[in-house]
Fold this sequence. Notes:
alpha/beta, 3-stranded mixed sheet, binds glutamine
Amino acid sequence: MTITTLAQLSADLDSGKISSVELTQHYIDRVDNSNHNAFISINKEQALAQAKAADDKRASGEASSLLGVPVAQKDIFCIKGTQTTCGSKILENFTAPYTATVVENMHQHGVVSLGKTNMDEFAMGSSNETSYFGNVINPWSSSTSDTTALVPGGSSGGSAAAVAAQLAPAATGTDTGGSIRQPAAFCNLTGIKPSYGRCSRYGMIAFASSLDQAGPMTHTAEDAALLLNTMAGFDAKDSTSLDVPAEDFSAQLGDSLEGLKIGLPKEYFGDGLDADIAELVENAIKEYEKLGATVKEISLPNSELALPSYYVIAPAEASSNLSRFDGVRYGMRTEQYSDLVDMYTKTRTEGFGDEVKRRIMIGAYALSSGYYDAYYAQAQKLRRLISNDFTAAFKECDVILGPTTPSPAFAAGSRTDDPVSMYLNDIYTIPVNLAGLPAASIPAGFTKAGLPAGLHLITPYLQEAKLLNIAHQYQQATDWHTQAPQSVSNGGQA
Ligand code: GLN
């Protein structure tokens, strides 16, 4: 096994084999020596102080499973006293005055925040190429015969690269249209987008509030369950947070899959799907049959409406959310201006990148009077149809299975001039966000060129524990998730 899991580190901390301070220093050193540009900032003193506190707690007999385990945080989460940029120039000098609930929950469990990972600006992107802080290199780049740098996916590209390169044993991500699952697929990781409302959005910089959801990015489903246990929970500070009893997401790990009904949506296996990925998904289906599952074709007839619906709703909500970045309340302000409107205009012109500007313009247009009904209201109706498709499909099956992405990781620069080809990355992931459902991407093998492919699993609302076991059983039967990129397999062990 060439990966280091949270479960393993937790056992090593328990047995005294390693201390949290040693472990944290180990990862800090790895980050210092890496060249993936996976992190925007590392607050070493804060991380080591948290690690020391965890070691002290353990010495005094306190223990929770992830006490003292370092985890990288996507730079979309506010952490008090820490630079929080959301990948944008406009927030380059912003220090958060409070901590996001998800991170606070993790800290309560003793998790050490290792540093802030790179990301597409305001989480808008699928390649990490819209970050003001530069591209992230996919650690799998050097594993192919081609020497071109590959993108890690996005928007949680820094988190994915950090875990794949073993600069952190796990990371947080956020997923509005696929930003946990698509980079997980591109970097051979397990990524979970929980049900909408599971994780608080308080302190997580908003992109599209009706879609945004935080989740774990790990090597294994077992680790994803452990990390999600520390992240999720009701929060009165987020009005869309779910007020449901706390759940142990590890509880079903180990259950048999005998009799599990898998649905294969015919719309997810059509034109545009890479042939190698299609074959790997077919192999995964056979593996599930061996585990006792049965398979049937289903239909999600409105799938083709998902992208058009998303690319109205998400920019509309973004244009409203991003109006708060005005040079007055947060982050940068332009240096020279004549009056207030000039100050707003120049600050936003200088502070936002092109993709963010494109989304703000699309969103403001879709919401403008006279067009609201034609675009935003219409997109909401499509959203309902897509959600109804899932409700109908789950009458016939327990889980929906397909590819996470239509293609594997692509070369940096190859899609930046063509927004539509970039948007198509999320064709299978976006419907899930529109419906608010939980879904996972798990490693499913490698294309002929040696690139990882993701298997996408979707379950009904609030069935994360079941979803995680479906992923876990596959990982018990296969070893794709244990593969590390060539550059890492020689020196990645903690
Ligand atoms: N790639 C999609 C977009 O650019 C999804 C991003 C996300 O999930 N944050 O909108």
